[in-house]
Amino acid sequence: MINTRKENPYWEPSRKGFITNYPNFLHWKKLDVDEMQSDRPLNLYVHSPFCAQRCSYCYYRTITGSRKSEVDRYVDALCREITLANERFGLNKRPINSVYFGGGTPTLLAGDNLKQITDTLRQHFNLDNAEFTVEGEPVTLTEKKAEILKELGVNRISLGVQSLSDDIIKLSNRQDTEAKVLRAIEFAKSTGAVVNIDLMSGLAGEKPETWEYSVNRALETGVHSITVYKMELYTNTQYFIEVRNDTLQLPSDEQELSFMQYALDKFEAAEYRPWSFFTFTKEGRYTHVHAPSIWRGDDCFSFGTSAFGRLGDWVYQNSNDADKYIEMLEAGELPINRGHHLTALDQMIRDVVLGIKLIHLDLSAFQKKHGFKLNSLCGAEIETLKNDGYITVSENEIVLTPKGILHGDYVGKSLGKRLAEMY
Ligand code: SF4
């Protein structure tokens, strides 16, 4: 918007041409006040760290064996956080896109705990048009708990199934069995909510037969949505100890890739279509609101120990020490522990690496938001990814090919790396 025309009189050294403002008023358009006031949508995340057991591959900070009184104290603190954050940031005027109870295992919370949190949220926010998801482990989703979720207005239930093969489940130190999983799925479906189940590829003991069994059984349940996560080995897991001691073998990367390829083929044949590179929904319907909204750059305020969120130019995380989290809130302080101010470049990279998870990256929206054509920033990488068969590129979008979907975050990482070199 700088006047770059050659005949511009101010290109010669001179004291003339004082810059009053930028961009020049010539570029300003008539503006409706409502446009300025339009409140950006907000997503809400609520974290519950409690679990029924410690799964062998899990690297999250979770808490097992808690007494009800300890959970009650945590929930009181969490509700205090919702109130305090609202007072501090004035969040309650913003339209709410989604609410997501994650963990940990939110379905392990007692009915009164779930109700207390939901009531507190409703005191501060209008959830009438929001997607409301609760995550759970199948063994904790009883018929009664499912009814409670329905009463609370939950309209999406996401169950961490991981495997439907009893041998694999046992090796993961989980309490589920195939029969318990199938029962929980029926309870979830009976609420009328959209039901997603997570599978995990690359678990200990997984063989083509067990993986194929899980994928086929998952499809037979007829759930609305199936998500496949790749198991990643972290040092703070039981798996890691056993692999290091040579008492456990995990499937190789090549095997895991072939498991995922099998799942992709089966999902396609069953008309489960991807809306992200790891979630597949019946006929492409029932797409999720929460994660896509965040990946497109919307804010998410997150409550609970170790919860992380985004507000405007800031990303932040609460204390991951649950005791400290509670003590801070009991002292009337917000438990935010660390954060990062997003520069303009951070925001661009974030929009690319998170946005491409949705398979389609809207290049016009990127240019409108950031003022750059993505191609002008990482054209060579885009060309290479296209030639290698990971993406197709049109004037308005980059789209992951089946190969790009199979390789998960690879495209995002490649483009993000190039952009990060501009720091
Ligand atoms: S239930 Fe989920 S969060 Fe809890 S230990 Fe197992 S994998 Fe981790």
TrEMBL record:
Domain Radical SAM core: 36-273
InterPro entries linked to this entry: Coproporphyrinogen-III_oxidase, Elp3/MiaA/NifB-like_rSAM, HemN_C, HemW-like, rSAM, rSAM_horseshoe, rSAM_sf
PROSITE patterns, sorted: RADICAL_SAM (PS51918)
Extent of the signal sequence: none
Pfam family of the protein (one): HemN_C
One term under GO cellular component: cytoplasm
Gene Ontology molecular functions: 4 iron, 4 sulfur cluster binding; coproporphyrinogen oxidase activity
GO biological process, one term: porphyrin-containing compound biosynthetic process
Family: Belongs to the anaerobic coproporphyrinogen-III oxidase family. HemW subfamily.
Name this polypeptide is given: Radical SAM protein
Organism in which the protein naturally occurs: Beggiatoa leptomitoformis
